Amino acid sequence: MGNEHYFTPYPTSHSAALQITAVLRGKEYQFVTEAGVFSRSRVDQGTRLLIEALPLPSEGRMLDLGCGYGPVGIAAARENPGLEVVMVDINRRAVELAAVNARLNGVVNVDIRQGDGFSVVPEKDFALIASNPPIRAGKQVVYPLLAAAREHLAPDGLLCVVIRTKQGARSLEKYLAGIYSQVETVAKGGGYRVFAARR
What we know:
By secondary structure, the protein is an alpha/beta fold. It has a single domain, classed as Vaccinia Virus protein VP39 (Rossmann fold). About 25% of the residues lie in helices and about 35% in strands. The chain has five helices and nine strands; from the N terminus they run ββαβαβαββαβαββ. It has helices at about 45-55, 70-80, 90-105, 140-150, 170-175; strands at about 20-25, 25-35, 60-65, 85-90, 110-115, 125-130, 155-165, 180-190, 190-199. The strands form two sheets. Strands 5-4-3-6-7-9-8 form a seven-stranded mixed β-sheet, with helices on both faces. A hairpin with a 2-residue loop joins strand 8 and strand 9. Helix 1 (about 45-55) packs parallel to helix 2 (about 70-80). It is globular.
């Protein structure tokens, strides 16, 4: 991809479709991926840990922030059909693939949008916001995004975020603790941690 990253809005890398299989929360999924999206060859370990750890509400609204080709939001929507899942990503190719993958896995309770962070997310009532943030974009991008999430949560809503332990988990936990009323580690494994921050 050269200097192009998966958080590039309009990837220009050569597109070569690939179909992968993943078992998430006990169910099998098929995902179509392409070059220019995050972890195209498999659902990465951090995303998998996040999906397994999510305390999914049975109804209401959830946001998959930085959805990529869709594994987090699609798994949540399929598990709880009463949940309205909003999925957003800056990367147009990722958003297009997420829409393909929602159809491929028979999921209809999703609303998939392209945009930078919360620029296309006016809602302020999410019961859950889940994110595997683009740490390679830098703290100056990721930290403000996770801080902004607080204003989009319902009064008792949760932000769940996964981070590689070696890529600054401790500093992220400390940062979140300065913004949210409660922060706890809800899962860890494979060099990753999942934090749940309550509004």
